[in-house]
Amino acid sequence: MLQAPRRRAQHDDLLATVQRMRLLQIDSIHVVARSPYLVLHARLGDYPPTWLEEALDNGRIAECWAHEACFVTAGDIGLHRAWRAQTESNHWADRHAARVRDSHLKEMHDLLAHIRTSGPVRAADFERADRGVSGWWEWKPEKRWLEAWFASGDLMVTRRERFQRVYDLAERVLAKLDPPLDTAAMALSQEALRKRFILDSVRALGIAQARWIADYFRLKPAVSADELVPMLASGELLSVQVAGWDDPGYVHVDHAALLEKAFEGRLRATHTALLSPFDPVVWDRARLRELFHFDYSIECYLPAAKRQYGYYVLPILHRGRLIGRLDAKAHRAEGVFEVKALFFEEEVKPSQRMLDELAQAIAATAAWHGAPKVRLGRCRPAQIASTLRTHWRR
Questions:
Q1: Pfam families, alphabetically (predicted)?
Q2: How far apart are CA 46 and CA 56, in angstroms?
Q3: Any alpha helices (H) in 22-181, and if so which ranges?
């Protein structure tokens, strides 16, 4: 995300973006746009959100458990299915699925038989006996069974309807993949898969210390510098010294030209964007502090009294730096994008250019989201509020 898009996004740009990141994390909170759409907007600019659902429906992308629940390209789903088949996961989704299978195996097989005979289903297709109960851990039984089969790989998501998962047999979803399922990936050993995920992590991160690599795909055990030595010897990874770092940085060979530009001082960041709380830029808090000197937490899971910045706080990327954060809410029916609060980092001294580019980024996000009128609340520092409001009144 060094430069803003130079042209209007095209459909294949969405797929190329997911491929570059390797993972597009899914989250259902929609105070602003749901996370995967916002992650894509930060990279593509103005694009139709329906492209994501179309790509899933057409088999160009698929859903799986990776970093968390994620979209991946059709070309990569074989890697993830092979990895999960060969490794023992301790993820909460797998533990939850195991408990459900232990207690309701007959009902789960009956549900699977129903889908095999009658076709795809949503959790909403089943009535719940205890109406009014809600929450992550208060799913209706059928929802838990569907998610358990999804975690095990027997079911996959064939499409989404109003962002609700529509589940079908894995073999039917895999049959529509474009490109077709990579059988060579499915045949890779655990060692070869781990190496592939390490290389893909470094490529997606741009530059990484060894201790940051495992988090991207939730690899266990952690990746060590010793494990990277053969990849350095083969030329697949490059080692670089970074000012202020005690440990070496690693760059994928595909980024060698960008690395050369950086050495020559010709790699310029010009982009300003609002980031999702679930953007891969901010996944790893240790990396975030080391690379951007930015402390961040997702406060929507905290009681209101314990929140420092707000419910759904978006980090602000500006020309290669994280300069601040804003608490936002989109009032779609009113066409209003509310910035409840905007905070610059203490060490950031906002220039006129910075404020102009931030105002443009907020306005662009609001317009793309169908809430073009921006309403601004409190700011830190307080004096920037009038400058931003003036920009939006033009």
A1: AlkZ-like
A2: 20
A3: 35-44, 50-57, 77-86, 92-118, 141-152, 170-175
| Assessment of whether the complete model's pTM goes beyond 0.85 | yes
Judged by DSSP in three states, 72 sits in: strand
Buried b (16+ CB within 10 A) or exposed e, 276-285: bbbbbbbbbe
Tell me the pairing of strands 272-274 and 373-380: unpaired
Contact in structure between 340 and 327 (CB atoms under 8 Å): yes
Residue with tokens 């910035």: 339
What distance in Å separates the CA atoms of residue 192 and residue 54, rounded to the nearest whole number? 32
Residues 6+ apart with CB under 8 A from 390: none
Per residue in 314-340, pLDDT (tens digit) is 999 999 999 999 999 999 999 999 999
The token pair at 207 is: 């530059």
H or E element: which one contains 232? helix 225-233
E-assigned strand segments in the chain: 24-25, 61-65, 69-73, 155-161, 164-169, 237-240, 249-252, 272-274, 313-318, 321-331, 336-344, 373-380
Q: Which of 197, 185, 112, 103 is nearest to 153 (CA)?
A: 112
Q: Which amino acid is at 199?
A: L
In DSSP terms, 72 is beta-bridged to: 62
Say how many C-beta atoms besides its own lie within 10 A of residue 183's C-beta.
9
Render pLDDT for 330-383 as a digit per residue (tens, 0 to 9). Answer: 999 999 999 999 999 999 999 999 999 999 999 999 999 999 999 999 999 999
Residue 18 contacts by C-beta under 8 Å, 6 or more apart in sequence? Answer: 24, 61, 71, 72, 73
Model confidence at 102, in pLDDT bands (50, 70, 90)? confident
CA distance 34 to 68: 15
d(CA 344, CA 232): 39
